[in-house]
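Follow-up to my post from last week.
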Amino acid sequence: MNAIDQLISKIKEKNNPTVIGLDPKYDQLPNCIKEKYEKTPEGVAKAILEFNQTLVDNICDIIPAAKVQIAFYEMLGLPGMQAFYETCKYAKQKGMIVMADAKRGDIGSTAEGYSSAFIGKTKIEDSLYGNDNIDFVTVNPYLGIDGVKPFIEDCKKYHKGIFILVKTSNPSSGELQDLKLENGRTIYETVGNLVENWGAELVGENGYSSVAAVVGATYPEQLNQLRTQMPHTFFLIPGYGAQGGKAEDIALGFDQNGLGGIINASRSLMCAYKSDRWKEQFSDQEFGKATRAEAIRMRDELTGAIQK
Amino acid sequence: MNAIDQLISKIKEKNNPTVIGLDPKYDQLPNCIKEKYEKTPEGVAKAILEFNQTLVDNICDIIPAAKVQIAFYEMLGLPGMQAFYETCKYAKQKGMIVMADAKRGDIGSTAEGYSSAFIGKTKIEDSLYGNDNIDFVTVNPYLGIDGVKPFIEDCKKYHKGIFILVKTSNPSSGELQDLKLENGRTIYETVGNLVENWGAELVGENGYSSVAAVVGATYPEQLNQLRTQMPHTFFLIPGYGAQGGKAEDIALGFDQNGLGGIINASRSLMCAYKSDRWKEQFSDQEFGKATRAEAIRMRDELTGAIQK
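User reply:
Got it. Predicted complex:
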């Protein structure tokens, strides 16, 4: 089954178009975890892994996918990278679809290397080595098709998927992405068209391609417009919760069947234990339960808004 | 001293505006290295490190800087990442300026993580941890200033530098970068202007900023145009040699003092031992000497063209 169909199947099974962002920073960890480890990159990497594993244990039956933001692991050096691989492995073992949020992009020969690192294979003599715990990786389109093609080839070969940045959720995303071209279209619309075309060969049985797109929840008009413009492109939608995106905005990224997107939440799920909503009900030690409670609340809020 | 002044000072010292790309793939290694290690990611990572160290030993007195392309290390997993860090460390110890070619870019809070990983510091309680062996990192501008600012802050704090993608060297770079906006300017010109502005506060004593740009040698007209348009922006110029850029083209990226850029060569230097030019003169075992011979030839060719 192609990657996007696997993801859609999991979303249907859990009736929940949510992906949990596993992007913890040291300061976000509860004291009950922090105090068990040394205050060094090695110790923090271990603390983060335990934190992630506890979260996964508490939500893997209700959330279909985990997105692991590699920046927060790279910043801890080698021990951090080990925690990244272990986190992907653990989420995969628990039945989740795993997305590496790496936003890689480079010239063709280098993009081949990146693709091998995440969704493809590295050939050494007659053996192939790869990371079987990652299903999707995010990709930056600034270099054009050369930089994307190696990823698409690996999507075909290994039944994997990619999310290409189209319209990002950050405040300055418009600085480049919203500029208008001579033909009256914006850069993000233009990239959107490219992505829709690049993905044509990988459209699966649900009508969506494994070559998918990142479109932020923080710009609901554009999200709605791109949903119409890119009928075969599945959306990874960041920006819900801490970044300000609301459920009714996000519903605009979905089709009439309530499909077509998955919504990322990182801080609002990871740090539920210290949120105004849950901190009275759950202690620090119960951080996993707080995340579970928030995951259920979020699921119900989102499915309510999408199915309206 | 700010990072770009350190780089320019090294370039002047060696009279050589070259950066060696240390981006080896397994297939490019000479047999005398390959046969010493196991045919596994661990073995290949060690082989690559030995290869890099030998190259560095052979050129560190004539080439001022090394650019380490992280994709080729990530594709070997954790052992590969270890070889990446060790390669940076070795080149730095040998007095070279070290550039991590990572092309990272993300929303603000994530870009902070990436910046900490390469040129900044990671704070754990009251301690700061960082990679002191990296001077520059490459950055992707697609997310706008939010995604670049954390890197610029670290440039200020820690005397480091960044190269932001403006016009890349690959065949499809124009697919997005050459599109014309309503105002008649291309996307790459627009990014060029942004980079020139973003770097204003970090201009050093040579008139160039530590916020620098990547501009490919394979598009000489654009290189020339950007040199005029971006008078305070130093250029990292890939595309020489294997990718097709010629010395006389590259000269267009330099100012009237013969400054303003550094030219990357990866394959043509790394694989000199099996090039038509040097394979008769040097055996496989002498791969380091072949790279040195090619480095001297390249230096003389480039300085000849630039100083014309």
